[in-house]
Amino acid sequence: MKNPLLAMIEKRRAGIITGIPSYCTANELAIEAILEQGLRFDSPILIEGTANQINQFGGYTGMKPADFRDYVYAIADKVGFDRERIIIGGDHMGPLVWSNLPEAEAMANSRELLRQCVLAGFTKIHLDTSMKVADDPKDERLSDEVIAERGATLLEVCEATYQELLKAKPDAMRPAYIIGSEVPIPGGAQEEDAGLQVTSVKDFEATLETYRRKFEEHGISERWNDVIAVVVQPGVEFGDKDIHAYDRQAAKELSSALKNHPNVVFEGHSTDYQPPEKLREMVEDGIAILKVGPALTFKLREGLFALSMIEKELVPAEKRADFIETLERVMLAHPANWQKHYHGTDEEKRIARKYSYSDRCRYYFSLPEIKAAITKLLANIDSAEIPAGMLSQFMPRQYRRVRDGKLPMKAAALVKDCVAECAEGYNYAVMPEYTF
């Protein structure tokens, strides 16, 4: 069975401008929304987890790679989405989580992570060895040689594991690989002025050439055709308060360099919050894999906040879920996931906890107290009768779809429709004939 990502590359070589969104989230409601809106099309859906979210020790979601696969498949079964159309991906797979350890330990953990990913059926893997580990020189840039050497070592593990998988599952799909890494680290810039620069053609070419040479040295040259994309910085980013919109003129030289490499595309990270027109320009310019994560749960949070406002109007105080207040209380009680990202006065940090583009509240959605508050909120809304005018006040876009018979007046459906709005921008970007 051919990997659909390779089929995408073939289409682009034939002159068909196409791409694929990479939905990087482990949130159940967000994944439901993505798969439900995907039922309208025949194209595959790519769902990814990062090494922070899922690894052999559980990550911050508590899931190992096989757990994440089963989790996504269970959601797919619930909404009636064909499992065969789902691509499970692993993002930033390498020593990211163990960069505080010496190379021997960090890479041993990385090898085990990749082994579990391949055995779990992950068919899109980002090999990311761009981060320094504990015994790397602190005052020197990590060289392309070291990055590619570590990356080739990890791909060897992937290939050996794939051969192991074939014995148990002869029709197992071969993984496709992504190399390279963007700056800054996953999840958006931590500082408002992160010195954003488009990847130079020189650096892009050096990444390809060094990796190709390392594949030869490791005796895995035949796997070079499985490398379908290079992560670059095309000039898009978001931080706490700001969005850097795509400027195709600034990325023109980098995009032109792809003409010399028809078997690869660019993967763009942190494309969250880009206008749909900019996303389409990115796909036209060769950035065919569009990573999005925080924007999905940002829209989910918007929907939950809107329902919480409606709850205050319709539900007696003693019966309310008070989701907004609960989220704030839990974030204050467990500040580790936001305090390094939000700066300024106490009031500025309070606003950021709720409304920041970096959306650090997503790390709290899986906690029992927050899950219970969401469940109670949805139940309260479903038991109340929302006046049409009130829905229009707090959720005007969803109101129009309810009014027109396109969306049921159900709490979960209203919230998931907020996430689907984000997905629609990516549909527009990657489907040449799509309008919305």
Mean pLDDT: 95
Number of extended strands: 10
Order of helices and strands: HEHEHEHEHEHEEEHEHEHHHHHHH
Whole-angstrom Rg: 22 Å
What is the end-to-end distance? 33 Å
Taken as a percent bin, the fraction of beta residues is 5-15%
Quaternary structure type: single chain
Description:
With 436 residues, the chain is of the alpha/beta class. It folds into two domains: 290 residues, Aldolase class I (TIM Barrel, Alpha-Beta Barrel), CATH 3.20.20; 124 residues, GI Alpha 1, domain 2-like, CATH 1.10.400.20. The chain contains 15 helices and ten strands. The chain is globular and about 70 Å long. The two termini are 33 Å apart.
Offer a concise description of the structure:
The protein folds into 2 domains: 4-293, Aldolase class I (TIM Barrel), CATH 3.20.20; 298-421, putative tagatose 6-phosphate kinase domain like (GI Alpha 1, domain 2-like, Orthogonal Bundle), CATH 1.10.400.20. It contains 15 helices and 10 strands.
Structure characteristics:
436 residues, TIM Barrel, 15 helices, alpha/beta, 11% strand, GI Alpha 1, domain 2-like, two-stranded antiparallel sheet, single chain, eight-stranded parallel beta barrel, 10 strands, globular
Summarize the helices and strands and which ones pair or pack.
Blueprint (H helix, E strand, L loop, with lengths): L3 H10 L6 E5 L3 H11 L6 E6 L14 H15 L6 E8 L9 H17 L4 E4 L16 H25 L7 E5 L20 H17 L9 E6 L4 E2 L4 E2 L7 H6 L7 E4 L7 H9 L2 E6 L1 H21 L8 H11 L12 H10 L12 H16 L4 H7 L1 H8 L7 H20 L6
Parallel strand pairs: 1-2, 1-10, 2-3, 3-4, 4-5, 5-6, 6-9, 9-10
Antiparallel strand pairs: 7-8
Helix pairs in contact: 2-3, 2-15, 4-5, 5-6, 8-15, 9-12, 9-15, 10-12, 13-14
